[in-house]
Amino acid sequence: MKIKFSLFFYIVLITILSCKDSKKTDHSAANEHHWSYAGETSPEHWIEIEKNSDCDGPSQSPINIIHRDVDSIKKNHELKIQYTPSTLISEVKNNGHSIQFDFEPGDSINYKNETFFLKQIHFHEPSEHKINGIIYPIEMHLVHVSKAGEITVLGILGEEGNESQLFEFFESFLPIKEGAFKDIHQEIDLSNLFLEDKKYYTYNGSLTTPPCTESVNWIVFKDPIILSVEEVLKLKSNMPINNYRNEQPLNGRVVKFNY
């Protein structure tokens, strides 16, 4: 009889503990949020989700660049593009927020006498930055990091027209499922973007995704590159719909136009 009672007590105890663990797991899952571009985890709620982020800081990105309000200055060679025809892409991945191409050490830019190394390229559709209120079909971000950990991002807007060989190369590795990645280890020639010849805007901003880190150097090129409608649609089909952050206030920041 004692054996039966002990067995019964043991079963009841295990059942109670299991229920508690189950409730704890369910509660944790219910409170485990990750930022996105829609619903309760959209950009408007990032500061609620990412408690230790800069997402409510005074110098956030993206912005609407109003050309008549910028300070126009002649180029003084503070930006030097040092891309070569033999840049190596290490891999491509779908991180659930964008398609991202990671680079092996090599290409760099020099901005304000500091070298920033190209780390990755990713895309937003439609564009995050606006120029005179105009939203472009796509925006490409080239993210560079210095040895000190400082960040400079080149923002290149894209509009629909003729086919782009560069985007054909990028999209040759698509489709790719969310959370997946592909090793590439192939060369790409970014020098044919001819960025050193283009006019651009500069301002002090932030990353456009959490943790929205501030003190990011932004260089947004005025003239868009051209790619086909089909290329835009193919890239769009591999990313979340409308993966862009809403426009952020300038808060007295000065935007410069380098021509």
Automatic annotation (TrEMBL):
Stretches of the chain forming a coiled coil according to its record: none
Reaction equations catalysed: hydrogencarbonate + H(+) = CO2 + H2O
Keywords from the UniProt entry: Lyase, Metal-binding, Zinc
Domain of life according to the entry: Bacteria
Listed EC numbers: 4.2.1.1
Keyword hit for Zinc: yes
Stored InterPro entries: Alpha_CA_prokaryot-like, CA_dom, CA_dom_sf, Carbonic_anhydrase_a-class, Carbonic_anhydrase_a-class_CS
Domain Alpha-carbonic anhydrase: 33-259
Keyword Phosphoprotein found: no
Cofactor(s) listed in the protein's UniProt record: Zn(2+)
Any GO MF annotation of the entry: zinc ion binding
Function summary: Reversible hydration of carbon dioxide.
Similarity comment: family membership: Belongs to the alpha-carbonic anhydrase family.
Name listed for the protein in its UniProt record: Carbonic anhydrase
